Amino acid sequence: MPAKETISALILGDVVGQPGLRALFFSLKSLRKEFNADLVVINGENAADGYGITPEIAEKMFTSGVDVITSGNHIWQKREILPLMESGAKILRPNNYPPGTQGRGYFVLEIRKHKVAVVNLQGRQRLSTIDCPFQSARTLLKTLRNETRIILVDFHAEDTEEKEALGMYLDGQVSLVAGTHTHVQTADERILKGGTAYITDLGMTGPSGSVIGFVKEMALERALTQMPIRMEVSENPAFIKGVHVVVDAETGKAVSIDRVSRQSGY
């Protein structure tokens, strides 16, 4: 029997500030080659000094080899990105924002004659109480699965329970559920019973020796004083964190999922 055709995807965690961007731009070409990646998806909502993303940064990401940029609750903090999101560029905001919200929550692209969908959702535990991500996903998949079975989901959420619950809920309906937002890579990557690859959090593409990417002294001062200090991105050298997932191109089921963790060489 001929070998099954597969799609190889590199899914990278939240890019934090200039250190994360430098690491991405320096390393992505070699990472794509190392993993023979057909596509790269990265969460970019913290790319602009930790808060939001600008059109200039997004364009540089695409030029460097990123195929789709996902986001989350910080996407709205740089309003200048909205026209680019509205233009049809492959920059997503969570699909479960209410109807009428600018931008879109999923994108379908073609890779070697196979359609691949990338979906962005946001959790509601300890985040804004927007529309239900479970119902949003269920409604979207009713139509999306008629177009493709290869579906990659970035679930931008705070709560581990909510992330695991969505993974179980979508098991067998999507190829991957990967959590973002907490910036700490978890060690629970696995393939669920129905064939969906899962990890609670990808981690971040951002500075080492920091508190979720930000200057540790400022984080400590905020914790000790309870003052609303605005955090600044650390300038330490960055790590690149995420997963490499291989998907059966016909069934959309995951073949493998492996964590990616690389020290930047810039």
What features would you describe in this structure?
The chain starts with 5 loop residues before the first strand and ends with a strand. It is α/β, with parallel strands linked by helices and 266 residues long. The mean pLDDT is 94. A hairpin with a 5-residue loop joins strand 9 and strand 10 (197-199). It has helices at residues 17-35, 55-64, 82-86, 133-144, 160-170, 216-225; strands at 6-12, 14-15, 39-43, 68-70, 106-111, 114-122, 150-156, 176-180, 190-191, 197-199, 204-207, 238-248, 254-263. The longest helix has 19 residues, at 17-35. The chain has a single domain (6-207, 237-263), classed as 4-Layer Sandwich (Purple Acid Phosphatase, chain A, domain 2). Strands 1, 2, 3, 4, 11, 12 and 13 form a seven-stranded mixed β-sheet that branches.
Strand content: 25-35%
On the 0-100 scale, what is the average pLDDT? 94
Low-confidence stretches: none
End-to-end Cα distance, whole Å, is 45 Å
Record field, number of beta strands = 13
**Second CATH tier, the architecture:** 4-Layer Sandwich
Q: What does the overall shape look like?
A: globular
* CATH homologous superfamily caption: Metallo-dependent phosphatases
Radius of gyration from the alpha-carbon trace, in angstroms: 17 Å
By helix and strand content, what is the structural category?
A: alpha/beta
Main sheet, how many strands, which sense, barrel? 7 strands, mixed
